[in-house]
Amino acid sequence: MSKLTHIRNYLVQNQSRLAIISDPVTVKYLTGFECDPHERQLFLFIYSDQEPILFLPELEVARARQTVKFEVIGYNDAENPWQKIRLSLPRIDSNIIYIEFDHLNVTKFNGLQSVFLGRFDNITPLIQEMRLIKSPEELNKLLVAGVYADYAVKVGFDNIRAGRTEMDLVAQIEYELKKKGIRQVSFDTLVLTGNNAANPHGISGTNRIQNDALLLFDLGVVCEGYTSDISRTVAIGRPDQFKEDIYKICLEAQLTAQEVIKPGVTAGEVDAAARRVIEKAGYGDYFNHRLGHGLGIEVHEYPSIMAGSDLVLQEGMCFSVEPGIYIPGRVGVRIEDCGSVGKDGFQPFTQTPKKLQYFDL
To answer: Could you tell me the CA-to-CA distances from 305 to 210, 221, 266, 271, 317 in Å, in that order?
Structure first.
């Protein structure tokens, strides 16, 4: 069954005639057409009883028609998009119109309300469910993205030098990826030295790599539209025993969580397995985020591997496992792999060794 047919069937079952997709990522997932409309309007109109219609900026029309096999309607910058939608689309009578609650901003929502009569309901849960279990083809693309993430980490390791800054390493990593043909990274590449690594979402800057401290890498690669995500923390020089102990606790938490992962276990149980290790060591307050997030065509997508989640893991689900300990002013460690739930357990896409590595400046 095609993805569009799946949505059509859902509309019929729920006595609706129309779903309006506004998230460019979902449009790409459903049609294969990739577009960033920026401030302009992009909508995929999916009907229960007729072919879809793609509505988008005029400057994207020619490229869209090379990808999709149904009607494409464009509008130019001087036109009112809402008026053109009203005049160009077939009139429908539907009590329920499905939209993506998790994506629409107020401007888009008000615009759609000015065009369509009916009660808006949320199609986001259906889209999340469709994307939750990856196909063998998707798993292979995620695995390749993981291979490139490992390569990017190696580039970072190989370029650790005295006098280099965090941004020096970021630039080298992304330059080498571009040379490999990688057009896009999953998110801003992070290289964080010393106390900067104690910020879970720190920002790489002009800080020079510190001796006798830890250095954290967090990065991902987009390959054939699918993402990867990896974190590794390494030692520069000879950090003190406290820092090494924090690393060992974090690694134990990550390995413990991975051992728990299998079909039938809940996401909450996986999070709890890692959290118990860190709490037992006395650092529970310093692990202040969920254990992991789903990934696929986006680097952060459903599901969340977090405390209290009763989501039952199934084969083909893909997510990260990334415990961290962040003690302000002292140390920050995160160790992360992304992977899938296999029949017999967790199958990581990233393979960079996790034994603490030492680099001399």
So the answer is: 33, 21, 9, 6, 11
